[in-house]
User: Fold this.
Amino acid sequence: MTERVLFLCTHNSARSQMAEGLLRQMAGNRFEVASAGTEKTEVRPEAIEAMRKRGIDLSRHESKTLDRFLGEPWDYVITVCDAANESCPVFPGAQHRLHWSFPDPSAVTSPGRQAAFDRAADAIQDRLREWLGQLAS
Assistant:
């Protein structure tokens, strides 16, 4: 049976979306992956661009709220921002609840904004690689 992973962030606009795309690419069919937020907004163009550079297409992704996933069984619920970790409801069907804190690239307003999204994608990819290694051992 395929394990299920849900990534949560505040707006489901960058970090959780990038984590979803990266895990799909890195682990293939090993997991069923979704992402959501405590609030619905839109997927940031900079997140789409950061993933495009890695061969991942997020252009058709849309921001979703977590309420649509509350009644589902999840093997892993992983928050990727501190605000979502604080406000995340209990997922009764979650086997494991993890928190990985990544800085919000959306908070960068200077000309280095895209670089902040690229750094966030790198950090998420590194953490996923580490986690997948832990699961394999």
